[in-house]
TrEMBL record:
Keyword Transmembrane belongs to the record: yes
One Pfam short name: FeoB_associated
Alphabetical keyword list: Membrane, Transmembrane, Transmembrane helix
Protein name, UniProt field: Attachment p12 family protein
Organism of this sequence: Falsibacillus pallidus
TM ranges: 6-23
Length: 52
């Protein structure tokens, strides 16, 4: 019984953590989710014009 409660808490905790990270990244916009954001020098202006 205790093991299944702990496993359930672990699953829901991980789901909550993943959801939190997703929401945090989505607030950063296009460059926040880009895999090249560390080495990109375009400052995202080209990408923002395409998405509008």
């Amino acid at each position: 019984m205790i093991a299944s409660i702990l496993i359930g808490l672990l699953i829901f905790g991980y789901a909550g953590f993943t959801l939190y990270k997703f929401i945090k990244k989505s607030k950063e916009g296009v460059c926040g989710t880009c895999s090249l954001k560390k080495s990109c020098n375009s400052k995202c202006s080209a990408f923002q014009d395409e998405t509008r």
